[in-house]
Specification:
about 240 residues; alpha/beta; Rna Polymerase Sigma Factor, Chain: A; Pectate Lyase C-like; 2 domains; 9-stranded parallel sheet; 5 helices; 9 strands
Length: about 240
């Protein structure tokens, strides 16, 4: 096996490690610390380098785990992706797949663990050309958090609010289910769905985009609005309207 040089084989990975850490932590200072810690850990393993099938893959794995650990320790906060995050790796590379999988994991966890009276804004469309594909997207808020997810591509999307939170969604999905208990708002009229099930209990409001079947249940003074021309509507006559 070719001898591995820290200067020639590992140090040149700094930029790639930084981009990976940045896409997971969404914080430049955190990402810089991850790179530094990664380099230290890899150096401390120098006696084992010859056993690695790929030193690059090992470095990426270390950086990924460190970034996830730091993200788990940070309290959910306002985040916005910046132009520094826009550079994309080569399509279908191990790095690309790792970034995509870990970012989706972090996003879903942060959304589901959002504390009361905190705001988490995810402007995913700011990543050039990026689309977030998954089988099932689940977003839930307990309290008063705000979440925005854009350019979603999924087979199923489920969004729920218990309280006064706000969820904004865009993209496309085959089936969407929206539930509100309280005075929250789900704005999904830019998330094109074949079939939608929407229900409110309280004074909350839901807007959606449906092309197939729309099923609506309203308990209280809630409001449900829809875009598109659904083929079938199962809904009460009151508290539902079409968006022109």
């Amino acid at each position: 096996m070719q001898e591995i040089s820290f200067r020639n084989d590992i140090l040149p990975l700094k930029d790639k490690l930084f981009r990976l850490a940045l896409r997971i932590t969404l914080d430049r200072a955190e990402a810089e610390d991850v790179v530094q810690d990664t380099m230290i850990r890899v150096w401390n393993k120098r006696d084992e380098w010859s056993q690695f099938e790929s030193v690059e893959a090992y470095c990426l794995t270390v950086a990924k785990n460190l970034a996830i650990d730091r993200s788990q320790k940070r309290e959910a906060q306002n985040v916005e992706l910046t132009p520094e995050m826009e550079e994309e790796p080569d399509a279908n590379s191990p790095y690309d797949r790792m970034v995509h999988d870990e970012r989706m994991s972090i996003i879903n966890r942060l959304v589901n663990e959002l504390p009361e009276k905190q705001r988490l804004i995810m402007q995913l469309r700011d990543i050039k050309g990026e689309k977030f594909k998954c089988r099932r997207m689940t977003v839930s808020i307990n309290g008063s958090g705000d979440v925005k997810l854009q350019q979603i591509e999924s087979k199923e999307c489920i969004a729920s609010i218990a309280g006064s939170g706000d969820i904004g969604l865009s993209g496309k999905t085959l089936y969407a289910e929206y539930k509100i208990a309280g005075s929250g708002n789900i704005g999904a009229d830019n998330l094109k769905s074949e079939n939608v099930s929407a229900s409110t209990a309280g004074s909350g409001s839901i807007s959606c985009h449906v092309t197939g079947k729309l099923k609506v249940r309203v308990a209280g003074s809630g409001d449900i609005a829809y875009r598109g021309n659904p083929q079938e509507i199962d809904a009460p006559r009151k508290n539902i309207r079409q968006i022109k």
